[in-house]
């Protein structure tokens, strides 16, 4: 059986923190990080506002991301092996004869704003935090290309608001998580919710 979990959320909401804990706890669990599909800086369009437009879907090679997920769907055991993920004995067999449970976590800030991905998820989560907290956490981070002054208010936040509205119209099966709760609380909530879904699907 195969199961795909979307861990979506705004920048600095805590997606990576949550994902890293889930990977350790869930069996045969692989991960795809959307940030790995950012195009090179010189391919990122500069907007009328003067900022490189990082926080839009065209900043990412979404075709490559979809193909990576397809690769997992076609042969999760092979995908796991090539990504150094340990498998339980029942999940070792490749192809339809495999009896084990394979899990894929897809983690990123624009998971529910790209039509070809919407049907891929078996379960969807979205973590958000208030503006001040988001701005504060972001100010402590350095990305491969550091944020120029004014990027947060001029680009990151307005794009978040736009995408959030779009996403709420696209999907009605997202479980919203309060990123202001403690890391433990968020993890326990999601772990329990995944366990319940997996048990109900058996
Ligand atoms: N529940 C939490 N409470 C307080 N701080 C948190 C919580 N979860 C994560 N953080 C902190 O917030 C920062 C961002 O966390 P993380 O890298 O997990 O976010 P992210 O959503 O993956 O961000 P991005 O997509 O921008 O890389 C880190 O410094 C992390 O330690
Ligand atoms: N990972 C990168 O290459 C990169 C470069 C510049 C900006 N970002 C930011 O990452 C966030 C998503 O995780 C977005 O808010 C981007 O601004 C990422």
UniProtKB/TrEMBL annotation:
<dbReference type="GO" id="GO:0005829">
    <property type="term" value="C:cytosol"/>
</dbReference>
<comment type="similarity">
    <text>Belongs to the uridine kinase family. NRK subfamily.</text>
</comment>
<dbReference type="GO" id="GO:0046872">
    <property type="term" value="F:metal ion binding"/>
</dbReference>
<keyword id="KW-0662">Pyridine nucleotide biosynthesis</keyword>
<keyword id="KW-0460">Magnesium</keyword>
<keyword id="KW-0547">Nucleotide-binding</keyword>
<keyword id="KW-0067">ATP-binding</keyword>
<comment type="pathway">
    <text>Cofactor biosynthesis; NAD(+) biosynthesis.</text>
</comment>
<dbReference type="GO" id="GO:0050262">
    <property type="term" value="F:ribosylnicotinamide kinase activity"/>
</dbReference>
<dbReference type="Pfam" id="PF13238">
    <property type="entry name" value="AAA_18"/>
</dbReference>
<dbReference type="InterPro" id="IPR027417">
    <property type="entry name" value="P-loop_NTPase"/>
</dbReference>
<dbReference type="GO" id="GO:0019363">
    <property type="term" value="P:pyridine nucleotide biosynthetic process"/>
</dbReference>
<keyword id="KW-0479">Metal-binding</keyword>
<keyword id="KW-0808">Transferase</keyword>
<protein>
    <submittedName>
        <fullName>Nicotinamide riboside kinase 2</fullName>
    </submittedName>
</protein>
<dbReference type="GO" id="GO:0019674">
    <property type="term" value="P:NAD+ metabolic process"/>
</dbReference>
<keyword id="KW-0418">Kinase</keyword>
<dbReference type="GO" id="GO:0061769">
    <property type="term" value="F:nicotinate riboside kinase activity"/>
</dbReference>
<dbReference type="GO" id="GO:0005524">
    <property type="term" value="F:ATP binding"/>
</dbReference>
